[in-house]
Amino acid sequence: MAHFDTEYQRLEASYSDSPPGEENLLMHVPEGSKSQWHHIENLDLFFQRVYNLHQKNGFTCMLLGEIFELVQLLFVVAFTVFLANCVDYDILFANKFVNHTDSSKVTLPDAILPMEVCSAHIRDNAFVIFVLIISGVFWLHRFVKLIYNVCCYWEIRSFYINALKMTMSELPYASWQEVQARIIEIQKEHQICIHKKELSELDIYHRILRFKNYMVAMVNKSLLPVRFSLPALGECVFYTRGLKYNFELIFFWGPGSLFENEWSLKPEYKRGGNRLELADRLASRILWIGVANLLLCPVILVWQILYAFFSYTEVIKREPGSLGARCWSLYGRCYLRHFNELDHELMSRLSKGYKAASKYMNCFLSPLLTVVAKNVAFFAGSLLAVLIALTIYDEDVLAVEHVLSSITLLGVCITVCRSFIPDKHMVFCPEQLLRVILAHIHYMPDHWQGNAHRYETRDQFSQLFQYKAVFILEELLSPVVTPIILIFCLRRKSLEIIDFFRNFTVEVVGVGDTCSFAQMDIRQHGHPAWMSAGKTEASIYQQAEDGKTELSLMHFAITNPHWQPPRETTHFISQLKERVHREAAGAPSDTHPLSLSESEPRSLVADLLTGPSTLAPVHFACDLSLTNNTAAGVNSGAAALRSLSPVSSSLNLRGSLSAAHRVGGLTGKTMTGSGTDARTVSSGSSAWEGQLTSLVLSEYASTEMSIHALYMHELHKQQARGEPSRHTWHRQESDESSDSIPDEVRSEPSARSRSFPRSHTFPAAAPSPSAIPSSASSSAAMDQEGAASQSSSGLRRHSGPVADHVGAGGKVVRTARVPMGGWAEDAKAASRHHDPLPEETSEDELPPHIHKVT
Q1: 345, 346, 349, 352: CA torsion to nearest 10
Q2: Sign of CA dihedral 335, 339, 342, 348
Q3: List of E strands, 448-585
Q4: Is-contact 228 222, C-beta < 8 A?
């Protein structure tokens, strides 16, 4: 196995986040003119707190929420101990009689034990004392953290009032874009960051989402062990809040983590020479954390059960069918998340797709189960009706033993049965529903389209959109399952994790070490099948899967219309828009009568979704029909996108900033920069009067991104037809990628690779029958790497996208290395790939390919 050992160092990149001439600028401000917020040392925490205070609607709401969380924790522990040790249940259940002088009725105080007896019960129970000690230590830790957070957020409150000129009463009604625009504006005055004269939207997003971008990238590259194949359940996903917490503890902020602070990876993890030692160290940390989880499992399990009981019992009693409702799973939120997408942006997008996702899952109700549910509901309803009638006739019926319990259980049974009975007016149209879902979630494997009616698609989608009951059950099982995953699954991936953080970390001036995928650089991480052909230099190992780079780029550009992207990114966006206008011009004028005169922006998506490409029948045996339908979908998407453009002849859209983008005297500027068009109209327009509110602007941004997602998926479908797909459900676990290496490589390893352990996420190479000897191939690969380093100054952290070797007849063959995780391929698809390469020499002898983004 070839070993690529590169030194992490700062090299000039192909673009700059700073204005020309201000690279590596260190601002000097006279001592007397410095403000309170000049040179904030930890900008990551600062921007995260600014964002959190905005999302929690101000200081008072945040403070009350923190206090009630402490009270809630104290209540759960105290009330549980009280119920277990201080209640005489024999009296409560009337198994023991109490003599009263004044009344024959039993009261609640009669069932409560005296304080001396209660204290004796607690002292005699060692487990209760252990739980109280652990809970007390945890509560004190939370209390100290609350005091610290109050002091920190008081400073953020002062920042909002004095620097941003926003009161706490205004904060709940201000959009994040307005807050962000004001932060960018005051950078010139207060110099929050002294390494850059101006901040960009991407700088702020990187600081807030630094670690979350890494998590999204690791899920995208199938690095985290969250997908399992179980004998009885088949393929399933297990990703809970406890498991996520442990991942972040190990990677980012826990003792001995990979980062020395919030913005910098430890120096030893930036070099590849000691990767084996670091992998052993990381494996040891994972083992000890797994053991700690195992020891704390009883306490955490009891807490999870009690918290779930107190949280959901009232909800289940009030709405028994709530457990049959669905929610987006934690894995789904991470899989569907764009790079550089804030929490409120993600939840807004997923919430818009919730109704369509629920309707889609309800399409697959079993007819047999429906028949059974109808009859069970009939019998349970009959019994319930009789009990209710008797209760109305004489309320003493409730005093009969188990009558009230029977009424409650029968009501729950009827509600559960109704959840399995479909609406008689429901029309079965899974393909159109899946297309509506795609418009909002933006990511979907290729094989789902055209197969929406199959149970395989439904089962895979249920991993993203699970039952609420399943979510609760997974959280209850998390204390038991999490230690097993850490010890037996994550630990053996330690070398791959070390390689990942070294290969996909870049240093950005004024920001620090960030995930290279979060740069959304088409040239370094684009996918040729997602409109990046000819624009990307990424190997399969470096490509983001499922079009994550391209879709994330469009989402960020649309969400932040003032962002000034790099030259290559601007070229990609402009080419996409040119293609949109070109194809829209060639589409029939009556295909989609989309217009901004609609009162609801989402009607644009509705018009597109009801187009001929959606309603046309799917002919599985006719490729020509599929091609025509796809082309119609592309033209429909282009027409819809063009209707949002200022070049539309139907409306004269003028750029004027709304309240969400107005800062000081910026009113009247044109919304430019990312290729996103203004979504406000002139005051004289018959469609709108005055400026649109920030809410309407957000709706139009969401609509534009939805249509872009549909349009890009249609183009991808055209381009990738007949090629093997590499989505998550086909990619294998990264630790199984060695199965794709030919047997001759395993049996005849090179002398250099024989003594060097293999990382499964590292680019692998295997000789083809026509390849020249290993040494010559290594030299050719080195020449190729060296040439790439001289001609490209991108933000690649790890080199090796492709390598050339000389095949039979002297023909140069370009071959991509094995990606992280690999993927399952058909027999037909296997013949489409080039033969793998022989072993290469160590990258110690190659030029370094670590770049700094300035």
Answers
A1: -110
A2: negative
A3: 465-467, 505-508, 512-515
A4: no
Band the pLDDT of 609: cuts 50, 70, 90.
low
Collapsing DSSP to helix, strand or coil, 806 comes out as strand
pLDDT at residue 20 in the model: 42
Residue 199, SS3 per DSSP: coil
Place of tokens 């939805």: 706
Label residue 162 by pLDDT band (50, 70, 90).
very high
Burial class (CB in 10 A: 0-12, 13-18, 19+), 378: exposed
- The DSSP-derived string for 389-436 is HHHHH-GGGGGSTTHHHHHHHHHHHHHHHHTTS--TT----HHHHHHH
| Residue in the block written with tokens 């453009």 | 645
Cα distance from N-terminal residue to C-terminal residue, the chain: 34
What tokens does 615 get? Answer: 């309603």
Picking from 840, 338, 745, 301, the residue whose alpha carbon sits closest to that of residue 551 is 338
Determine contact, residues 603/617, Cβ cutoff 8 Å: no
> Could you tell me how far CA 369 lies from the centroid of its own chain?
34
- The helix (H) or strand (E) run that includes residue 620 is none
pLDDT digits (tens, 9 = 90+) for 574-602: 888 788 777 766 655 444 433 333 334 44
The predicted pLDDT at position 415 comes to: 83
pLDDT-derived band of residue 634, with 50, 70 and 90 as boundaries?
Answer: low
- Phi, psi torsion values for 370, nearest 5 degrees: -65, -45
What does the buried/exposed string (b/e) look like for 445-465 if buried means 16 or more CB atoms within 10 Å of the residue's CB?
bbebbbbbeeeebbebbbbbb
Q: Which residue has the tokens 């807490």?
A: 303
> How is the chain split among helix, strand and coil, in percent rounded to 5?
55, 5, 40
Calpha distance 133→420 (Å, rounded): 46
Work out the pLDDT band at 538, boundaries 50, 70, 90: confident
CA distance linking residue 494 with residue 284, whole number of Å? 9
Question: Count H helices, E strands: the chain?
Answer: 32, 11
pLDDT, tens digit (0-9, with 9 covering 90-100), for 483-522:
999 999 999 999 999 999 999 999 988 899 999 999 999 9
Rounded to whole angstroms, the maximal C-alpha distance in the chain is 110
For residue 34 the two structure tokens come to 């410095």
Residue 832 tokens read as: 């489409």
Copy the structure tokens of residue 692: 């649109």
CA–CA–CA angle 427, 428, 432 (5° rounding): 100
Q: Can you read off the two tokens belonging to residue 766?
A: 């295997």
Which positions ≥6 away from 639 have C-beta within 8 Å? 584, 587, 591, 592, 594
- In contact, 801 and 542? CB cutoff 8 Å: yes
Q: Are 56 and 65 in contact (CB under 8 A)?
A: yes
- Which residues, listed in sequence order, are joined to residue 816 by a DSSP beta bridge? 802
Alpha-carbon distance of 21 to 99, in angstroms, equals 91
- Considering 424-433, 797-806, 813-822, the range whose residues carry the highest mean pLDDT is 424-433
On the question of pLDDT at 7 being above 90, the answer is no
What does pTM read for this prediction?
0.74
Q: What is the DSSP string of 497-515?
A: HHHHHHHTEEEETTTEEEE
Q: Please say if the pLDDT value at position 194 is more than 60.
A: yes
Helix (H) or strand (E) holding 590: none
Q: What are the phi and psi torsion angles at 593 (to 5°)?
A: -75, 65
- Give 465-482 pLDDT, tens digit per residue: 999 889 999 999 999 999
**pLDDT for the residue numbered 289:** 96
What pLDDT does 625 receive?
A: 39
- Long-range contacts of range 689-695, CB-CB < 8 Å, 24 or more positions apart? 691/656, 691/658, 691/659, 692/658, 693/658, 693/659, 694/175, 694/177, 694/178, 694/658, 694/659, 694/660
Instruction: Give me the residue label for tokens 């509901």.
Output: 377
Where along the chain do its domains lie? 36-85+125-199, 377-420, 520-582+689-719
Residue 725 per-residue DSSP state:
P
